[in-house]
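Dear support,

I submitted the protein below through the web form. The confirmation email said the job was done, but the results page showed an empty box. After a refresh the structure appeared. I'm attaching both so you can tell me whether what I see now is the final result or a partial one.
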Amino acid sequence: MSDSELDRLLDGAIERVGHYASVEPVALEPELAKPKSFLKVLDADHYNWHADGYRKLFGMRFRVKLPPLDQINMIFYPESDRAAPIFIFFCLLTKRKVIGHLNVNCPFDDAAYREQWIAPLVERLQRYPSFDCDDRYPEWMQKYRNDCTIYGMFLNERFADLRDCALDYLDYYLPAAAALEPETDPARLARIREFHDGFVTDIRTQDKAQGMIAKMIGKDKAHRIFYEVTT
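What the results page shows now:
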């Protein structure tokens, strides 16, 4: 990886995972790991790792020359017998703006679960100036929204806050996830698996980024990345 701010952020996030679990890179086909774009306008890198307690850790770095764009995406998928949320962080830097999405996507919504997974992150969120904005949360993502969700477009100067908040979230999320025992209750296991299947389907079929990437690397390759690497 090059030594850019977003590369250091991705490296730092995976390093944090390694404090609580053994992390191993997963080999990807070269055309998926580093897809070539039409007219060489895109520089993209995709990564998968496996870690104890996780089905998959996904990371992506995405750079476009014109207009200048710099993007990071991380999704951490717990094993389907663990009740931890799916962690997601997306950040796109443009010349003047930063678009951010930070969330833990929760398979349960009872009071005890919110107290365990949402309340501690809300406490961390409150350390920062408000991320409230007028940007409309996409309809398909509404069901994943909670009190610690960040989504919107901000001035570039808010990047440091988004970065630091994402790492603050991870500093709670990772040890809490590592402390979980596998679920054994059939009803809870069924709910977790149903939730994970629905989340994966939404990323594959609703995320508009797939169409944008397809314009640069081709529809078939973009489809494979979303189906084989991202999810």
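Response: this is the final, complete result; the empty box was a page-load delay. The two ends are 22 Å apart (CA to CA).
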